[in-house]
Amino acid sequence: MYLSDDLLGLAPYIILAVALAYLFRINQLLKGTPDEIRKLSGSRWTADQLRTTYRRLEKTSIDYTDKLPPKLDRRYIVTGGSGLVGGFIVLQLLARGHSPKSIRIVDIRKAERDDMLSGPATKVDFIKTDITSQASVDAAFKKAWDSSVAHLPLTVFHTAAVIIPSDRSKYYYGFPEAVNVRGTKNVLEAAKAAGADIFSSTSSGSIAIQPIQPFVAPWASSPRRFWQVLDEQDFYKPLRPHEEFFGNYSASKAAAERIVCGENVEEFRTGCIRPVNGVYGNPTDNTVGGPLARPVLPTWISHIVQNFVHAANVAVAHLHHEAVLVNPLAPQAGRPFVVTDPNPPITYSDLYMAIKTLSIHPLFVMNLPPVVMLVLAHGLEWYSVLPHKVPFLKAMLPELRGDIRYLKPGLFSICTHLVASNKESSKPVSDGGLGYTGVITTLEGMVFQILEWNREHASMDGGTKRKAYTTSVSAAEKIQHLGIMAQDFVAQGH
Question: Among 169, 299, 422, 460, which one has the highest count of C-beta atoms within 10 angstroms of its own C-beta?
């Protein structure tokens, strides 16, 4: 039996129609919210609710000082102390009465945060340090302390890391591995040499995220792994292969977490805090600060449900962690704890609603078809790795620039429905937990961040201009482009 020439001529159009129908179906699935997640999500924020919260915080600012764990008579090194989580740790240590002389910030750059550019934070010692260099780290840790605190026991809060969330190819693993893995090893060695007995490291809840598989059968109810629960269960299983993490960032943080927890002994207690995806709390963050800085926001995730965590809550969790690790026999040592805000997850549409309702700057949210962005992401990833696979093309293919360079398939795994569990960290200390309770809700935290944004910008040409901030992603790019790790890359053959 033979097909007619007319039917053969239609074959390409039939194939195209089937392909488009399939992509349309995948687009529908990616725009959905599974019932399991819908039940866990809180109610959507309203304009009245947002304005009422804004007015309340405008009159009475958030003050959680009385909720901090009691002061311990110790001295502190905070790597990444100029950043989001590290900065809040420094501010909380000062708030509960520690002398600036007892705190040391070890970071690649000085703080740009307005809340650290005045008051006691300006008196905290800062040492510019490249944590990929053992010599640089050793020099920062060996610097003499003021005689009034030199005798105190030492806690190290290790928060320094680089975040480039979209890359998943091993061709780009060298940079996050240099900072997040080998940098952590360097800090651990320096901490032990300096006589530290507590080492609390900021890990990442994204370690638990497994890659989404969006291209499923047309009759499937949702993409595979379209919703996930973020907890610590993966820590008690063998470390997953690189390709089973959503990207290089989570793979490097998982490796670093195992190293930190593996160093735990009675005289050197270690462990990790896993903030869930994503962390916010200052205009320098990517979660809230990123959209605030844009007049137009292209997105395909307005409906996505996720837990978020304010960096102040992460810092509080670190202080609870330290208070537990003071006990040399604490069973909580040598493991990670997930932390999030003390409320149900929200949607990204709630965040966008808050900005559009409260910010002095207008925001236009441009909702895009997720399947179009997914197909484009695969094409851009293929383009970006091609020069690594075919080296002679490197000089011929222009490098991707602007936001488009971040559009890669890894983003679709961290932009799925992600619900976090505080179950372990919230347990009483007597039951093996940290006794952690968040001090700021997501509603309060995001509204207050918009309030601070408005205050910072009110005097800038009548609030028409937007201040440029160095975010964690842009900071990572600057470090990479400065070539700080160049020598390491050459040595490793990258």
Answer: 422
